[in-house]
Specification:
heterodimer, A: 308 residues, mainly alpha, 0% strand, B: 501 residues, eleven-stranded mixed β-sheet, four-stranded antiparallel β-sheet
Chain lengths: 308, 501
């Protein structure tokens, strides 16, 4: 296990360095943010003065190595628009995105998995057809639309939930549903196909022929095997949720990483974008590693590379 | 459980829900404003964007300000006199305290001016103040500013220069000051929950008109539909930057209303006179005749904006009553294009960026195509648009749509950058117009300036290097209880608002 982890950590470092380098240069290909920082009436001299003050007039490679040196000291630099350290910005926004992603995951799993079981166990019956209709609808609704619709119904018409921003638990409900609905459909589909797949296997058929009832069969025999694809999906979905949060955070004025990233991209605030991408790469790599380790715990037949 | 106790529980639950979801009903105590983004910075000298403006202008005072009629009136300065064409002396109030309790003196004013005009400081607002070469405190209540040459727009620019406390800035440094700004304005900075809200509290010791709300919260709500929903649900009191459809939506609302004001921002179409086909004056005039400003304003903008026939709005000094320009006349446009022959057939690029109203950009394209031009829309991100637009006639596109405000309500801030050859924004070369603009910039005589600007407007009307389109409206949404008159310079002073129950 140790060798495996070390090797994977090495690979992760290379991946992250690649991602960071790519984002550094790709962003700068589009120009620099100076023009967005000055009023339209600014003269060329003003623009040059500001560009110099921000250091964007230095050679690109010098900027890159400075950035790497700062990164090695865990310094992500300072936002050129807000003039605040990027770490401060990310640290203040990250908890909100994590809270939202967790809420969405609860919605997605809490509804998606039972729905998937329903679809598998009662397939071809009217109840399963109704459920699959709901899943299809959830999957087809664009988030920005379902979000606005929810605000109109539950905030403006009924006055039950606050339309936007943060505060108590009630603020989290609508954004979590808006974000979780898409993943809910994925969870339902995967659960259904994994269950059907396992139920058609010999061991399940044997158990059934021995008279094991459906509920017991699912719980004692099938659940463990069927959960392996679910873990993969969960790891992928968490990355997706973080990406999907961009729209939900904008619609619900939820102050997470997604919102700050959109603003940073529009303002060409390179430092923030770099910081967020770095964090995203780190989280994705970590989640993948985690899901690999989880496989081997759930199914001892899966052996991690280099651990035997 | 008896029915009574169940009802009681339900009532308690309902009350708890109502309390938790509708805090804005106590908005006289706590006033909530929805901005588009959070302020980028609250140090008044390191940024210029509207979301920061809205907040920090309530924290700081300026030497002078504009009243609701748009006139320049005293604020920190009580009076001023010109010692010469290049020197102006301000007499200051002696009863102003910063929020930390220290007294505002001429030293603070001189320091603020020097801070923002220091190129090393790197203020994005430098260009608005770089005509000021020196600031000296003559006594605790007297300060003298020196400019390089006569500068008639000085007072109009000083409306935007916030006075910061020298001692505090020097003691804590630039970054810390940005995190906890100290001003002398009607509201005090209380806290900044990054990404969530900035809170202010009323400065009860303020020397001027005090604000009506003890506490004010500015939130970032990027989506316009959500800002409208917040107003309708009663969870905010004022929302900025609505579009015409959203403002119309509020007409039927029981809780909210739209507040509309005409601004100093002018929308225009810029023609590159150095490139075909618009190096031909006939085709420029044809383009001007092809555009139906009234139709655009009424059909697309809900009738809130106002067509103009000079490159300025009535909110600015330099506006000439009764000016006319090429009117909408499609037949005339077609005739002029036919006269010009094949030159008119060249493909024209119309530059724009996503922040501009694309309905307008598409309407302009369609109207020019209807007249006989071949126009292609070239959409780029804002930074690229700005860079290209300022790159001079050779690099800039043949046509571009833009909206201009100098936030100074003076023709010098509009006509000079858009027309004078020394400006990157200008794609027009006319020595007569250049000398008129220089003349108007270098004299303090208002009548001379007006006469010069009148001639510039006439040149633009006949030569059509730019087609003035409309005076832009600013649309806010507000709860019915709020009394507030939007101003042309798009400022939002809390102490000029009032609340009726």
């Amino acid at each position: 296990m140790q060798g495996f982890l070390l090797r994977r950590a090495g690979q992760a470092l290379v991946t992250i360095l690649g991602v960071v380098t790519l984002i550094f240069f790709v962003q700068r290909l589009t120009g620099d943010p100076t023009y967005l920082l000055v009023p339209e009436t600014a003269t060329k001299t003003d623009v040059e003065a500001l560009r110099h003050a921000l250091g964007f007039d230095r050679p690109l490679l010098v900027q890159y190595f400075d950035f790497l040196a700062e990164l090695a000291r865990f310094d992500l630099g300072q936002s050129v628009v807000q003039r605040v350290p990027v770490l401060t910005i990310i640290a203040s926004r990250l908890p909100y995105t994590l809270m939202l992603a967790a809420g969405a995951l609860v919605v997605a799993c809490g509804i998606g998995v039972p729905m998937g079981i329903l679809l598998a166990v009662f397939r071809d019956r009217p109840i399963a057809k109704a459920a699959s209709g709901i899943v299809l609808a959830a999957q087809s609704m664009p988030t920005f639309w379902s979000g606005i619709l929810m605000i109109l119904v539950f905030s403006v018409l009924l006055g039950w939930l606050p339309p936007s921003s943060t505060g108590d638990f009630s603020h989290l409900i609508m954004p979590s549903f808006a974000l979780g609905l898409l993943s809910m459909a994925t969870f339902a589909r995967i659960t259904r196909s994994a269950l059907l797949d396992e139920l058609s296997k010999d061991y399940a058929r044997t158990a059934r022929s021995r008279g094991v009832r459906t509920g017991r069969l699912l719980l004692r025999h099938v659940a463990r095997n069927a959960s392996i694809p679910l873990i993969t999906v969960a790891a992928l979905e968490i990355s997706n949720l973080l990406a999907g949060a961009v729209i939900v955070e904008t619609v619900f004025a939820w102050p997470g990483i997604g919102q700050v990233t959109v603003q940073a991209i529009l303002a060409r605030d390179f430092m923030i974008v770099q910081g967020v991408v770095l964090m995203g790469a780190f989280v994705t790599v970590l989640l993948n590693l985690l899901s690999d380790v989880l496989y081997s715990i759930i199914d001892p037949r899966i052996v991690l590379e280099g651990t035997r | 459980m008896t029915p009574l106790s169940r009802n009681a529980r339900l009532a308690a639950l309902a009350a708890a829900l109502a309390l938790s979801t509708a805090p804005a009903h106590a908005s006289k105590e706590r006033f909530i404003v929805d901005l588009v983004n959070e302020p980028s910075s609250l140090d008044p000298q390191v940024q210029w964007n509207p979301d920061s403006y809205y907040v920090y202008r309530n924290i700081f005072d300026n030497l002078v300000t504009r009243n609701d009629k748009g006139e320049i009136v005293p604020q920190v300065a009580t009076s001023w006199k010109y010692l010469s064409d290049t020197e102006i002396e301000f007499e200051l109030r002696s009863d102003i305290l910063f929020h930390d309790g220290s007294k505002l003196t001429a030293e603070d004013v001189a320091y603020s001016v020097k801070r923002i005009t220091d190129p090393k400081f790197g203020s994005p607002q430098l260009g608005q103040f770089d005509k000021i070469t020196d600031a000296v405190a003559l006594s605790p209540t007297k300060v003298k500013l020196t400019t390089n040459g006569a500068y008639p727009a000085l007072l109009a620019q000083l409306v935007k220069l916030s006075i910061v406390p020298k001692a505090v800035v020097e003691a804590v440094g630039k970054d810390a000051f940005n995190l906890k700004p100290v001003g002398s304005g009607p509201y005090k900075f209380e806290g900044w929950q990054r990404g969530v809200q900035v809170s202010l509290s009323r400065n009860d010791a303020y020397w001027g008109d005090k604000g009506p709300f003890p506490a004010v919260i500015f939130r970032a709500v990027p989506d316009g539909a959500t800002r409208v929903a917040n107003l309708q649900a009663g969870t905010s009191d004022l929302g900025v930057t609505l579009d015409s459809d959203q403002a119309a939506q509020l007409k039927s609302s029981a809780k909210a209303k739209a507040l509309i004001g005409l601004t100093e921002r002018v929308a225009y179409l810029r023609l590159n006179t150095t490139k075909p086909p618009f190096d031909n004056v006939k085709l420029r005039v044809a383009a001007a005749h092809a555009i139906d400003k009234e139709g655009m304003v009424d059909g697309l903008l809900g009738g809130f904006d106002k067509p103009v026939s000079q490159l300025l709005t009535p909110a600015s000094f330099g506006w000439i009553e009764g000016m006319t320009g090429p009117n909408y006349d499609l037949a005339k446009a077609k005739a002029l294009i036919a006269e010009a022959g094949p030159a008119a057939k060249a493909e024209i690029e119309l530059a724009t960026a996503p922040v501009f109203d694309q309905r307008i950009v598409q309407a302009i394209q369609q109207q020019l195509v209807d007249a006989g031009f071949t126009v292609k829309i070239a959409m780029t991100d804002m930074a690229t648009y700005l860079k290209r637009s300022q790159a001079g006639p050779e690099a800039t596109s043949t046509l571009s749509f833009g909206r201009w405000s100098c936030a100074c309500q003076d023709a010098d801030g509009v006509l000079f950058p858009l027309v004078h050859k020394s400006s990157g924004w200008s794609a027009y070369r006319n020595p007569k117009a250049d000398s008129l603009l220089e003349e108007a910039r270098q004299t303090l005589d208002k009548d001379k300036r007006l006469a010069a600007y009148k001639q510039v407007h006439e040149i633009i009307a006949t030569e059509a290097p730019l087609v003035p389109l409309y005076q832009a409206a600013v649309l806010y949404g507000a709860t019915k209880n709020l009394q507030f008159k939007p101003t042309p310079n798009e400022s939002m002073f809390l102490n000029r608002m009032s609340w009726v129950d």
